[in-house]
Design brief:
430 residues; six-stranded parallel β-sheet; 14 strands; elongated
Length: 430
C-alpha cells in the first residue's frame, strides 16, 4: 500500500519504518527540514534499539522515503497517518494545534479519496474534530474517511511491539476504512478489534491510565513494606501469580515518567472533568507518583543526614532503560532537588547524556559508572540499565567515599551487597 506518516517523531518513525518493513511504500513527513535531511541519511534523532538499522535497510530498498511536504504526502498515499506531537498545556489539557493544522493541510491538498488515521494519542472526540476540519477546508466534494488507530509502543521495545502486538485497535465509521486497515495489518497476524472512533480513542487513554495506576499501587505498597519490614518484590511476585493481576508493571521504583503516562493521565483527568466526572482515582495515582520521588529523597537524607556539600553519584538518567528519553524522567526532579540542597551530583547514563545536559547543566557528566563512584558519598541507581547489573562492586566500594548504595529500582540482591560491606537501601526492601 502507499502510506504517508505526518510527523516523524518517535511514533511516526517506528510506525513508518515497520510498515515499510512489511512491504509498503511509506513516506514520512515532518515540518523540520533539518530533521528530514538527516533522516534521508538514516541519521535518527532518538535512540530505539534496532530502529536505525530498520530505517537504513528500508531507505536502501526504496520502501521508505522522507519529505517536508504534506502536499506530496496527500498526493502519493491513500492512507495518511497523523502522528504529530500532542504536548500538554499548563492546565493539563492536550495541545491539538498540530493535529488541526495537518487536518487542514490534508483537506486543501486532497483531490480523491483518502483515509486519514489518528495515530497520535489524542482526547476522545478528536476524530470528530478532524472530520469537521477536513470538511470545512476541502475544496471539492471528495469522499474521505477518518479513523483512529492508537499505538501501544513501549520505548526500548517499540519494534517488537509493532511487529508482534497484543492487539490492534481500529476505530472506524465505514466498511471501506475497516477493510483498508484490516488489510494493512493482515501480515501481522494479530487480533484486530474494530470499534467506533470514540471507543478507540478511549482505549488508548484507559490503557495508559490503568498501567500508571498499577505502578503507583505497587509504589504505595513499597512505602508500607518499608515501614513494616516486608519485601515489596516478594509481595509483587505473590500478587502477580494471580492470573487476574499478572506481574507486569508491578516493579516498585522511583515512579513513572516518559512522554505518555504523565501527559495522558493529565489529559484524561481533564477529559473526565469536561464530561462531568471527577476522576479522583487518577488524581491519587498522580499524587502517589510525585510522592515516590520524595520517598527516594528521604532515603538519601536518612543515610547522609545533611545534603549540603555531599557528592552523590547517580546511575541512570533516562526515564527507563533502552531509551534516551528524558521527558518527565524521575532522575531530573530528584537531581535538581539534591542540587538545590547544595549537593554535588555526578551522573552517567548509557544513552541519555546529551539530552540530559539540557536539563541538568550543573551536574558532572562522567564517562563511566566507575567515574561516577569516584569520591561520591553514596551511589544512587535511578534507571535499571543492564550495564549496571554487571558492575564490579569490589571496585565500586573502593571508589566510593562511603560504601552506600541507594537502589531506587531494586536491581540488586541486598544480602550480597551487605556481605560485601555496603550499606544498602532499596525501595520497600529489608
Amino acid at each position: 500500500m502507499n502510506i504517508s506518516i505526518i510527523g516523524s517523531g518517535y511514533v511516526g518513525l517506528v510506525t513508518g519504518s515497520c510498515l515499510a518493513e512489511l512491504g509498503n511504500n511509506v513516506l514520512c513527513v515532518d515540518k523540520d527540514d533539518r530533521k528530514i535531511e538527516k533522516l534521508k541519511k538514516a541519521e535518527i534523532p532518538i535512540y530505539e534499539p534496532g530502529l536505525k538499522e530498520l530505517i537504513a535497510r528500508n531507505i536502501k530498498n526504496k520502501k521508505l522515503l522522507f519529505s517536508s511536504s504534506i502536499k506530496e504526502a496527500v498526493k502519493k498515499s491513500e492512507i495518511i497517518f497523523i502522528a504529530v506531537g500532542t504536548p500538554s498545556l499548563e492546565n493539563g489539557e492536550v495541545d491539538l494545534t498540530d493535529v488541526e493544522d495537518v487536518a487542514r493541510n490534508i483537506a486543501l491538498n486532497m483531490t480523491e479519496y483518502r483515509l486519514i488515521v489518528e495515530k497520535s494519542t489524542v482526547p476522545v472526540e478528536t476524530g470528530e474534530w478532524v472530520k469537521r476540519t477536513i470538511s470545512a477546508y476541502i475544496k471539492q466534494k471528495i469522499k474521505f474517511d477518518v479513523a483512529s488507530n492508537p499505538e501501544f509502543l513501549r520505548e526500548g521495545q517499540a519494534i517488537n511491539d509493532f511487529m508482534h502486538p497484543d492487539r490492534i485497535i481500529i476505530g472506524v465509521e465505514s466498511k471501506k476504512a475497516k477493510d483498508i486497515l484490516a488489510n494493512l495489518y493482515k501480515p501481522l497476524n494479530a487480533a484486530i478489534l474494530v470499534t467506533n472512533i470514540k471507543s478507540a480513542e478511549l482505549i488508548k487513554h484507559a490503557s495508559n491510565a490503568f498501567l500508571a495506576t498499577k505502578i503507583s499501587f505497587i509504589n504505595a505498597f513499597s512505602q508500607i513494606c518499608d515501614k513494616v519490614g516486608a519485601d515489596v518484590k516478594e509481595v509483587a511476585f505473590g500478587m502477580g501469580l494471580d492470573k487476574r493481576i499478572g506481574h507486569s508493571f508491578l516493579d516498585a521504583g522511583a515512579g513513572y515518567g516518559g512522554s505518555c503516562f504523565p501527559k495522558d493521565l493529565d489529559a484524561f483527568i481533564n477529559i473526565s472533568k469536561k464530561v462531568g466526572y471527577d476522576f479522583r482515582l487518577l488524581k491519587a495515582v498522580k499524587d502517589i507518583n510525585e510522592e515516590q520521588k520524595e520517598f527516594i529523597l528521604k532515603k538519601i537524607r536518612d543515610v547522609l543526614w545533611m545534603l549540603k556539600d555531599k557528592t552523590i553519584g547517580v546511575l541512570g538518567l533516562a526515564f527507563k532503560p533502552d531509551t534516551d528519553d528524558m521527558r518527565n524522567a524521575p532522575a531530573v526532579s530528584i537531581i535538581k532537588y539534591l542540587q538545590k540542597e547544595g549537593s554535588r551530583v555526578r551522573v552517567y547514563d548509557p544513552q541519555a547524556m546529551e539530552k540530559a545536559k539540557i536539563e541538568l547543566m550543573d551536574a558532572k557528566f562522567c564517562d563511566s559508572p566507575y567515574e561516577v563512584c569516584k569520591g561520591s558519598d553514596c551511589l544512587l541507581i535511578i534507571t535499571e540499565w543492564n550495564e549496571f547489573k554487571e558492575l564490579d562492586f569490589v571496585k565500586v566500594k573502593k571508589m566510593l567515599k562511603r560504601p552506600i548504595i541507594i537502589d531506587a529500582r531494586n536491581m540488586y540482591d541486598p544480602g550480597i551487597l551487605k556481605k560485601l560491606g555496603f550499606q544498602y537501601m532499596g525501595v520497600g526492601r529489608l
